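Journal club prep — side note

Before the paper discussion, L.F. wants everyone to see what a predicted structure for a comparable chain looks like in token form. Sequence:
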Amino acid sequence: MELKSEKVFYEREVNEALMDADCECILWGEDFYDMKIVLYPKKISAIPGYEDIKKSLVNAALVYFDFSSENYIKSSIVRFDWDRQIVYIAEGNFNAIWKFFQKSVDLGIRIQKENGNEVPVDQKEDIVDLTLLERKGSKPVISKGQLTYIAREVSEDEKKALGRKQSLLDNQKYKFYYAAGGDVYHDRDCECIKAIAPESFEASDIVPEGMRPCKKCKRKMYLRAACSPYVKQIPQVDLLLTRGGIMDFHLEKFAFEEGLKFRIDTAGELTVKGKEDTWIIKGFDKNFLSLWHNNYVKTAPRERYITQGFHNQKLDGKKLYSMLEYICGYTFDKHLEAEDRAEQARIEEQRAEEARIKREKSLIGRIEALFRNIFSWKSKRNK
């Protein structure tokens, strides 16, 4: 019995059904006898080598058929590497697609064999690459038309390495994670950590020397440092910082170099702990910020203690970056130095004013003396 191509029978209907689809091409299952499907966990941007392939990726409509349904033409938009003939599908979407798509793949393999052509795969499952789903404790397989995982035996050395890796992740002392011999360090929640082999996994409580931060998680790292120990507030703090225009490189400076600490005590207000004092930045909801400084009482010319409440620092309307810079530069000693300079300027201005008045009085005295002399001379002359 001659096998019939789905493309021959349904191409017109499929083209009509996908007329408005957001895709650059349509992919038919029967053409996959010499193509590949690569499954990836979670985000495609996290797969190794993504930066090298992302420019080659396009949206494609993967077509399959459910003949038990009245609307039997089905499709899914996937990422397709046209040059390498590889389709990328998220692990979580695969089973729903493969349930129907596998029939079209199998049809294509059988058509090629019937026509006497060599086929690089023996069965439909061979077109699916599961490499990115490999795990230490389990193995991905396609069984009975579904992606599943089966447990595999783990050696004692692997168990020790896995235990060591998890122990490093659980230790709150450590903030930075990386692979021995690598050049990138990560936040503890970064997806890339999963790809680091347990045997080479390392952790540090300081920024690893000679390494660079991961582009994907560096903001989270800076926020974790700045929000610790209130790490659960990271999303709310990040929302305010983003609204205020604070970029990643700004945040790196404020968190790592200046040691600022952020938290939220009142919704919509950012509390900032500087070198010595505490500050509150208000007005995010109105896009007009004001900076408030903790109150204090002087107990001696160069001593004080912090009291309750805050006072306006009179920087209303300034940008968030300028306010954070101001906080970084503030210390009580510098404040006193500024007061001393202001007092010295006041004293010098007062002295200058006194000297001016003295000069004026001297001038007036000389003029009065001159007039007295003139009057006296005229009086003597008239006698």
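L.F.'s comment for the group: The chain has a mean pLDDT of 90. Keep this in mind when we get to the figures.
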